[in-house]
Design goal:
This protein is an alpha/beta fold. It is built from five helices and seven strands; from the N terminus they run E-H-E-E-H-E-H-E-H-E-H-E. It has a single domain, classed as Glycogen Phosphorylase B (Rossmann fold), CATH 3.40.50.2000. It is globular and about 45 Å long.
């Protein structure tokens, strides 16, 4: 395996929101830093701007919350990680994060999540579903408000040695 850094970002759709443009920007920045960059997404209008010479683009139905599709996506992601020699997997949404979590556990790769917003957690099931964003090796909070929200509402899911990074 090459010692070159290879990062796989997984996002439901590439639209024009903050998470999506962050994914796009990071993918192209990684290439500029001599790292290999991959994006897995189901589609979206921002796709046409991806420089396919710089970023490997893979289409999968990662926007789906269907547990069967999440499991199938996790198997496909596992294969992508192994065959491409991915070092870091970065999930930017809950449904893809579940598939990424499984794939990272199977492949023993580093798992990063970006917690972009406050998710509805009116029931314990919903809060557990949301908690996947906290089950990574590194949590990136999208703002000071989100950083506080994570610590106030998900502290029981955070491991003692886990890192939460607030980039504001």
């Amino acid at each position: 395996m090459s010692s070159k850094l290879k990062v796989l970002q997984v996002i439901p759709k590439l639209g024009y929101g903050g998470a999506e443009t962050g994914c796009y920007d990071l993918a192209h920045y990684l290439h500029e830093q001599n790292a290999k960059s991959y994006i897995v997404t189901s589609g979206g209008p921002l796709l046409k701007y991806i420089d396919k010479k710089k970023v490997k683009l893979i289409r999968l139905p990662v926007q789906s919350k269907n547990p069967i599709l999440i499991f199938i996506n996790s198997i496909i992601l596992t294969l992508i990680i192994l065959f491409s020699g991915i070092n870091i997997v970065h999930a930017r949404s809950r449904a893809p994060a579940w598939a990424c979590l499984i794939a990272c556990k199977l492949t023993r790769r580093k798992f990063v999540t970006t917690f972009h917003g406050t998710y509805n957690f009116s029931s314990s099931i919903k809060k557990f579903y949301n908690s996947v964003m906290i089950k990574s090796d590194l949590i990136i909070a999208g703002s000071n408000f989100i950083f506080s929200h994570i610590n106030e509402n998900y502290s029981n899911y955070i491991k003692k040695n886990q890192k939460t990074f607030n980039y504001f």
